[in-house]
Amino acid sequence: MINDVPFVVYTERKQNIRLIPARLANKTEWSIYYDTDSYFR
């Protein structure tokens, strides 16, 4: 679990933060997180 990247979607409503889904990032999302150049290609 050391190399796992969480993928979290949230929304802010007034003073509350609401988590929508939370899961492990897939291969593409993991790549975007660790290799910033891949996001802009």
Structure explained in plain terms:
The protein is an alpha+beta fold. It contains 2 helices and 2 strands; from the N terminus they run ββαα. The protein has a two-stranded antiparallel ribbon with strand order 1-2. β1 and β2 (16-24) form a beta hairpin. The longest helix is centred in the last third of the chain and has 8 residues, at 27-34.
Provide a short characterization of the protein structure.
This protein has helices at 27-34, 36-39, and strands at residues 6-13, 16-24.
Main sheet strand line-up: 1-2
How many E strands?
Answer: 2
Distance between the termini: 28 Å
Q: What is the mean pLDDT?
A: 77
Order of helices and strands: EEHH
Main sheet record: 2 strands, antiparallel
Number of helices: 2
Name the overall outline. elongated
Helix content: 25-40%
Parts with pLDDT < 50 across at least 5 consecutive residues = none
Structural class: alpha+beta
Give Rg in angstroms: 13 Å
Instruction: Please report which band the strand proportion falls in: under 5%, 5-15%, 15-25%, 25-35%, 35-45% or over 45%.
Output: 35-45%
Descriptive labels:
elongated, 2 helices, alpha+beta, 41 residues
Can you lay out the helices and strands and say which pair or pack?
Elements: E1 6-13, E2 16-24, H1 27-34, H2 36-39
Antiparallel strand pairs: 1-2
